[in-house]
Write a structure and sequence with these properties.
alpha/beta, 5-stranded mixed beta sheet, about 290 residues, globular, 2 domains, Nucleotidyltransferase, domain 5
Length: about 290
C-alpha cells in the first residue's frame, strides 16, 4: 500500500475501528482493536499509532471520531459520559506525537459519521438537517448547507437534553436525559431489563406483545424528542443512524404518531443502514477535508 493516505479511527467503548480512504474514495479497513472499559487511553492510542504506521509510515493525516464533548480546535476530549477514562485526554497532540508529527483531527463520533454521509452525498448539501445516532446513547448534529454547526463548540448534544424532569439518572450526572428514554438501554428496560435489542426485535417480529409494547414505548420517547428538536430548529428533515436503526420498522409508526401529535412540521425521516465502518470512514473523510 502506498503511503500518504488519509486515515480514520472510530473509538468506541469496546473497539476502535481503523482504516483509510482508498484511491476510489472507498473505505479500506485495516484493523479493529479492543479498547475495553479498563484500557487506558495512552495504551489504546499507542496501539492505534502502531497499526497505522505499520501500514503507512507517512500518513497524510488522521481523523478521529469519539463519543463525548470535543474541543475541535485543540483536538481535546473534554468529557465523555460513556468513555469516562478518556475524559480530559489531549487526543490530537498525543496521537500526533506517536506518529512522528502527522496531523490529527478529532471530532465527536456523530459529527464524523455525518461528515462521511455528506461526503457520500447521502445528506444533501443544501438546507438544514438534523442527524441523530441511536445506540448506547444518542448523538446528534445540526447540518446547514452541507456544514456542521458547532455553535460555541459542542452543538448537537441532543441526547442530554432533558426530556423528563426528575427522570432516570443519566451517565452524565443529570436526570431525565433523552438518551435514558430513547437509547439502547431504554429499549432493554422497556422489555425486561436484560434482553438484548436484537432478541427483542426478533420476538417483536414474531408477534410477541411484550416486545411490541417495548418498541412502542421506545418510539413514543424518540418521537417526543424529535418533535422538540423540530419545533426549535424547523429542519428540512432528519437522518437517523446507528445500531437501533436496524429496528426502525418496529418503532417508526409510534415515533411518527407522537411526533405529529406534538409538532406541525412534516415527518421527514430517513433511517440509514447500519454500518460498523461508517464512523471511521467519516473520520477519514474529515481528515481529507481539513488538509
Amino acid at each position: 500500500m502506498s503511503s500518504n493516505c488519509f486515515w480514520g479511527v472510530d473509538i468506541g467503548g469496546s473497539t476502535a475501528i481503523i482504516g483509510h480512504l482508498g484511491r476510489d474514495g472507498s473505505f479500506c479497513m485495516a484493523e479493529v482493536l479492543d479498547t475495553g472499559p479498563c484500557r487506558q487511553p495512552a495504551a489504546v492510542m499507542a496501539s492505534i499509532a502502531t497499526v497505522i504506521r505499520r501500514f503507512d509510515p507517512s500518513p497524510a493525516a488522521v481523523g478521529v471520531g469519539i463519543a463525548g464533548l470535543v474541543d475541535v480546535k485543540r483536538g481535546f476530549l473534554t468529557f465523555s459520559p460513556n468513555l469516562p477514562l478518556w475524559s480530559g485526554t489531549p487526543i490530537a497532540s498525543s496521537l500526533s506525537r506517536l506518529m512522528g508529527g502527522a496531523q490529527v483531527f478529532v471530532d465527536n463520533d456523530c459529527n464524523a459519521f455525518a461528515i462521511g454521509a455528506l461526503h457520500k452525498g447521502i445528506i444533501p448539501g443544501t438546507g438544514l438537517w438534523l442527524f441523530i445516532t441511536l445506540g448506547t446513547g444518542i448523538g446528534g448534529c445540526v447540518i446547514s448547507e452541507g456544514k456542521i454547526l458547532y455553535g460555541t463548540g459542542t452543538a448537537g448534544e441532543f441526547g442530554h437534553m432533558t426530556i423528563r424532569e426528575g427522570g432516570r439518572k443519566c451517565t452524565c450526572g443529570l436526570r431525565g436525559c433523552w438518551e435514558r428514554y430513547a437509547g439502547r438501554d431504554a429499549l432493554i428496560s422497556f422489555y425486561d431489563g436484560r434482553t438484548e435489542p436484537k432478541s427483542i426485535a426478533a420476538k417483536a417480529r414474531k408477534g410477541d406483545e411484550k416486545a411490541i409494547a417495548a418498541f412502542n414505548e421506545y418510539g413514543l420517547w424518540l418521537g417526543r424528542g424529535m418533535a422538540n428538536l423540530a419545533k426549535c430548529l424547523a429542519p428540512e428533515g432528519f437522518f437517523l443512524a446507528g445500531g437501533l436503526c436496524t429496528c426502525f420498522h418496529l418503532f417508526h409508526l409510534e415515533a411518527k404518531r407522537e411526533f405529529e401529535s406534538r409538532c406541525p412540521n412534516p415527518w421527514k425521516v430517513v433511517a440509514l443502514p447500519d454500518s460498523s465502518t461508517a464512523g471511521a470512514f467519516g473520520a477519514a473523510a474529515m481528515a481529507a477535508g481539513k488538509c
